[in-house]
Amino acid sequence: MVAPAAGGGCRGSGGGPERAAGPRAISASASTAPAAPAEPGAVTVRAHEYGFDMPAEVEGGVVRLTLRNDGRLKHEAVVVGAGDTPLDRVEADLTPVVTGRGTPTAPYLHFRGGVSLVPPGGAATSTLTLPPGRYVLVCSLTDADSTDAADRGPKAAAERFHYDLGMATPFTVQTANAAAMPPSDGVLVARDYAFDVPPLTPGAKTLTLRNDGRQDHTVAVSEWADGVDAATAKASFDALLAATPDKPPPDDVVVPDDVAFAGPLSAGGQTTFTMEFKSGRTYVFACYMSDRSGGPLHAGGKGMVAYATVPAG
After folding, report:
1. Contacts (Cβ under 8 Å, ≥6 apart) of 191
2. Which helix (H) or strand (E) holds 134?
3. pLDDT tens sequence across 84-96
4. CA-to-CA distance for 217 and 191, rounded, in angstroms?
5. How far apart are CA 140 and CA 153, in angstroms?
6. Where are the CATH 2.60.40.420 domain residues in the chain?
7. What are the C-alpha distances in Å from 92 to residues 104, 106, 156, 170, 172?
8. Which fold has domain 41-173?
9. pTM for this structure?
10. Rounded to an integer, what distance in angstroms lies between the CA atom of residue 44 and that of residue 130?
């Protein structure tokens, strides 16, 4: 789900499944040996205008989800727990979440993360946790998210969500592996209502987003230009969060670039995302979900924002 501009709508205690059982006695006279850890499952999804090609059933547990974009527009693959709810009802109930209206989230909807903002011809992978259940894979982007108008498909108005155009595919998980989440370059923990940001170093990094809270959370990562220090970044972002359509931010506010997104995740979920951290740059991590009972977006209304500067080197 796409991260909004600051002050806009929504883009989304945990731990993955435990490792397989430990040492197992073979016989009274035999030696014991640790069981080999289970490997994550893998599933590849192909996206196009406007649909997904994917299996109807997926092995759950820890899942390595790859989205290959065969289309001419940007696409994403977000996993939504939907139970037995009809697909048209799921699509209708997703819209207030995606647009950040702050209304209550339908109780049956649960978010498991996924892969976001894959460009045409590209591919991206995320590792996530997926318990048994019934799900829908959705793309909540619009044609307008592919900024080059020449690349927009002819079938839809630019503002229509792709899940309304066919990119909402049900699938089931009946069994789950016993794999553990693989090691990553750091764990970004989402709480109610704060982020614990791991130490950052320059370079391409894969981080795990883990939701230890009770509410749904996302993380949208934005990057300031070289030379913008943490104090300036915070003052600028505070002004952006306070802005409204009738009260835009001052002209001198420094606007960061959106560089990464992960989630949304309901309580207990984990998902990975990969991005490039640049030496000396300041980053902001913000959540644009509302409480499940409704209310303001967490970034502006709950202060769920964190800042970090990558050491120069």
Report:
1. 212, 213
2. strand 133-138
3. 999 999 999 999 9
4. 8
5. 15
6. 41-173
7. 13, 10, 17, 15, 20
8. Immunoglobulin-like (2.60.40)
9. 0.86
10. 15
